[in-house]
Design goal:
This protein is an alpha+beta fold and 275 residues long. It contains 11 helices and 11 strands.
């Protein structure tokens, strides 16, 4: 296997903002070029490279070396990343509504794109990255990251208002909730909820529901076992298999059968377990 990723949960205090931390080794076989298609998962990722070897990200019509640390926005379509040598990275998977309270940037500003984290956040993030690279154990990196994120939250008491509640509810229900029910439970009108999602997260609630449903599909596929595609479609709330295949292809660019056959060509991050 040429890609190894391990995931770690955040402390309870950070759970409203962070889904998990992860550490990854990419192109462990040191191939001359390892292209990987990254599937959307409904989250925003802050990625810190732990060595001088970086991945290459798509920029316009070509590929460019990523910065030392990169914010990867919420994508609704897959994108391809290139590895030319073994790349080690540490990641913070932000809930999109949790990005602003910690970094001061709404997820909508990074939608479907990449941003240099050091340009975005300044010297304090650069110092944090230097400390991260100086240690060797995942537990040490997680402790440093927890301390950094907690410090960013100091001096402010972010209110977990209806947008946070609605986004979390979508994820917990795996996208299987109507706009009317969601708005009712968040005590907000459907129109206002849609406006807030567009302004703060960068997608509509309905599109975010589709991403959450795809995430559940990928979690079930990763889990393996004896589940057929028909069973996965049913368990993920699709009315029929044709609808399931159409939606899967829209967000991944491939049919489910092709994805399963060529899974090693994809980076899929559906999280550790179901909510």
């Amino acid at each position: 296997m040429s890609v190894l990723i391990k995931e770690y949960p955040p402390s309870p205090a950070l759970m409203p903002y962070v889904e998990l931390f992860w550490e990854g080794h990419f192109n462990t076989d040191n191939a001359q070029l390892l292209p990987q298609k990254v599937l959307p998962n409904g989250y925003v990722e802050a990625i810190v490279h732990l060595s001088d070897l970086h991945c290459e990200l798509p920029v316009d019509a070509s590929y460019q070396l990523s910065s030392d640390s990169t914010l990867i926005g919420l994508f609704s379509q897959p994108y391809e990343v290139h590895f030319k040598g073994e790349v080690q990275a540490f990641g913070i998977r932000f809930k999109p509504e949790g990005l602003y309270p910690i970094l001061g940037v709404p997820a909508a500003e990074a939608i479907d794109g990449f941003m240099d984290m050091e340009v975005l956040t300044g010297n304090d993030f650069k110092e944090y990255c230097n400390k991260l690279r100086a240690v060797s154990l995942p537990a040490e990196r997680i402790a440093l990251t927890e301390a950094f994120l907690q410090k960013r939250l100091e001096g402010s008491t972010p209110e977990l208002y209806y947008l946070n509640q609605a986004a979390e509810m979508i994820r917990r229900r795996k996208g299987l909730i109507s706009i009317e029910e969601l708005a009712g439970k968040a005590y907000i009108s459907p129109r206002q909820l849609e406006r807030e999602f567009n302004q703060k997260i960068g997608v509509t609630p309905k599109r975010y529901m589709r991403l959450a449903r795809l995430n559940e599909v990928n979690r079930l596929l990763r889990k393996g076992g004896q589940l057929s595609l028909t069973a996965i479609a049913h368990d993920s709330g699709y009315a029929d298999q044709a609808h399931f295949i159409r939606d899967f292809r829209h967000f991944t660019g491939e049919k489910p059968t092709v994805f399963i056959r060529e899974r090693e060509k994809f980076i899929v991050n559906p999280n550790m377990a179901a909510c």
